[in-house]
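Look over both lines:
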Amino acid sequence: MTVGADGDRRPGRERLSERLAPDGDDGAPHGGAIDGTAIMLAAAKASVPASSLPLLLDRAQAYLDGRASEYAQGFECVHEDDETAVFLVPLGHWDTKGLDLDFSHREVDAVRRAHAEHLRRVGSDADRRDEFETALEIREVAVVSR
């Protein structure tokens, strides 16, 4: 059940957070390696339907993961954990990759926002938020699965 903007509950509509909950390998879009909270924040700011963002992120993730070694060799990794490696990439990175993925301008912007929100979440957890905010002024972010 979802709460609408006016506070009413609408049965049959699921929240983004419900769709992102781990429920096995059912083939449903999960948003790639991006943190669920980062996806929800990006979806709130993006000009694409929130329901389409996890699918876009899954497509982008497959693209990035297929080139993980290129990212590891060519870009600065600012955070690694058991699941992801977060790279700072040049401005315009997502515009170029969006063309390869046949994303619209709005879809590219939504994916860019989700990756940036993921970095902000990592920065908050690691007490590096200011450092990462400064980096986002001159670079973009690519989160690659490990």
Observations:
- The chain has seven helices and five strands.
- Residues 47-145 form one domain.
- The beta strands are 2-3, 9-10, 76-80, 84-90, 139-145.
